[in-house]
Amino acid sequence: MTAVVGSRKVRREDPALLTGEARFVDDLVVPGALHAKVVRSPYAHARIRSIDTTEAQAMPGVVGVFTGADLRDDWANPLPCAWPVTDDMKSPEHWPLAVDEACFAGEGVAVVVAETREQARDAMEGVIVEYDELPVVLDLEDAASDSSLAHESLGTNKSYTWSLVPDSAAVDRAFADAQHTIKERYLQQRLIPMAIEPRGVCVIPEPYGGDFTIYSATQIPHILKVMLGITLGLAEHKLRVVAPSVGGGFGSKLNVYAEEALCLALANRLKRPVRWNEERIENTQATIQGRGVIQEIELAADADGNVTAVRANLLADMGAYLQLVTPGIPLLGAFLYHGVYDVPAYSFTCTGVFTNRTPTDAYRGAGRPEATYAIERAVDALARKIGMDPAEIRRRNFIASDKFPYDSAAGLTFDSGNYAAALEKALQLADYEGLRKAQADRRNEGSGTHLGVGLSSYVEMCGLAPSRVLASINYSAGGWEAATVRLMPTGKVQVVTGTTPHGQGHETSWSMIVADRLGVDPDDIDVLHSDTAISPHGMDTYGSRSLAVGGTAVFMACNKVIDKARSIAAHQFEAAEEDLEFVGGEFRVKGAPGRSMPLAEVAFEAFTAHNLPELVEPSLEASVAYDPPNFTFPFGTHVAVVEVEEETGRVRLVRYVAVDDCGNQINPLIVEGQVHGGVVQGVAQALFEEAVYDDNGQLLTSTLTDYLVPSAAEMPGIDTASTVTPSPTNPMGVKGVGEAGTIASTPAVMNAVIDALAPLGITELDMPASPLRVWDAIQDARSGGHER
Ligand code: MCN
């Protein structure tokens, strides 16, 4: 039987998605369901003076209108933040509807429940809310100075300061002894996650026993179940959470949202199903946003350009509230501000502050794109300062391939790596030398269309996460994953996974892993997931964890199944277990070629239980909960080539090469797809996307006409390639890939833009490098010096 793992198998998920057959929350037909619409604060900061619901209550179809005060006793606890990063972290109480004070534009203040969605929407007009506007704080540095407060009651905007300074004297010494130092300041603009499917939730009270079934467009049904139980004070075993088809999440659906808690509370009160579906404008205002960080990074280097220390200081925008993992997002990058470089001294500090904007939280890469951006741009700045080629400074500073496992100055152990190999492959694929020559030619010709080449070499930590490491950084849950592999009596296989795919193709990948382990046709393997009644245990999908942790659990469950099957087969053969081998899906007695027993036959024996060895239980299935001993550390180099038009400031991405190393690959087609999607998302940050607020805290980019999500037309083809450096952390030697493209691409593109503009004297540019921003920078440079 030829190996399935490693083949470019087309995803089994795609026919339903591509033909419109997949069922999302909004497709569910639920007889008798009520529709909820949330009345939201138009102000970024205001005291709620009064809410008059009389008119709305009387409108056609309206079943109820509730304010935050009305529902206050329906919650046992505020919405959860599961990552109190420091013991003294400050966090304002976050109720599903604001009670006295609204702290961002879009925060819910009341909910209308009606027989139809249209009736609920109409009745929103009848809810009369009187507000007293309060001063807003939007700028991060203003927020840090407490010049005005995002929450009146909190007394400060500062949530926490978290530091990682293993040896401050070593850092000071490195800077004192340095031949070259640079200090850079970068802005990570806020990004709006734009899943094609907005959020949605539908809660159905079951007829008996006070049970609820909660359908939600979520990445985390398992975590949601626990958290909603705690928020509502409902017994967790009475809740069943199902994530049907989910149309993308990118981290934004890794959360416990007000509307989920609201629908559950309303269904509990009204004893009827209650559903809510997000409109796009709510998606931009009330779903979490990503990034929102001011970064200062300093490098110390010796005369040859060897980096001797990295010091990073962050000011991170929490937005108005701490959502599920808001404060921890910068920590996911905190260990990686030295990137792929062998840097002996390291220091990182982050302060999280509240502003009157939409809360931030995980967005694809979560902390790691920010870290990679800072170090990759800073290394380019150092190369510019000392007149060294960007490829050369990287080669010079890489952690050498013979140093793995590598203990970093920040305290991690990088599992495996060969950074130079990925760089050289990327340079070769992009024809780096040819590009540099073309660039020089263009410059010599005095062309007004500048060519820029940008590199980004990255390493990320994913496969979240060893539970004991999560404990050490105050995360409230574990990072293990569960799997069950079950042989049906006829030899077909059911796999139950605790991961929650929402575009990553786990059904295909997990079936491939099992096919190879058990010697079963992949089409005879079903993969069940995303329903807490079917897969009761799990930690869900985010942090490019699913393969390295959840896939490994599946792999290990297969091994357990084989172990049990071996004892059953040995009993049938009247042979010792050690004398059996399992090859190609069947047991054979070593050295007795005529005798074999396919796994399907063993499954049938286990089912009939007519002749099992003593103490062996009927049925053939095994469960595993796997807690990884370490993260995995994928890496690679991306090369971006841009043209920048001097007259218009327009940046065109003309070539993109991605070389990624995610260890052994289960399905290279899926890997490529993940890289493609990730790259486009990272390019979007560099060139197009930004959540823009006005001075009053109104989001100006609240529709898809203002918020520029790139389409295929803005992207060149992406040339992907890989190197393969297996991870020693797990038995399949795999590393994650779901976020790699996003992590690598933003700095590659920005380095290319700066590279293009360098002859004009431009060395700084904020993102996105929009035509206006680039044009402004060019005008500033022409008039005698570019300032940010
Ligand atoms: N894979 C593989 N071989 C490897 C690594 C991965 O074949 N060496 C395959 C896996 O088997 C799996 C897929 O690639 O089918 C992604 O695996 P992994 O890297 O473990 O990532 P996760 O499945 O945990 O996905 C999470 C990741 C994150 S964090 C975000 S954000 C993200 C992403 O995946 N959001 C996505 N990819 C997305 N893709 C889609 N379509 N939609 C999103 O919302």
Please name the defining characteristics of this protein.
single chain; 788 residues; alpha+beta; seven-stranded mixed beta sheet; five-stranded mixed beta sheet; 21 helices; binds pterin cytosine dinucleotide
| Bound ligand species | pterin cytosine dinucleotide
Low-confidence stretches: none
Structural class: alpha+beta
Rg over CA atoms, rounded to whole Å, is 28 Å
Biggest sheet strand line-up = 3-5-1-12-9-10-11
Summarize model confidence as the mean pLDDT. 97
The largest β sheet comes out as:
7 strands, mixed
Strand fraction equals: 15-25%
| Number of H/I helices | 21
Shape: globular
Write down the oligomeric state. Answer: single chain
- Give the CA-CA distance, first to last residue: 61 Å
- Percent of residues in helices comes to 25-40%
> How many DSSP-defined strands?
28
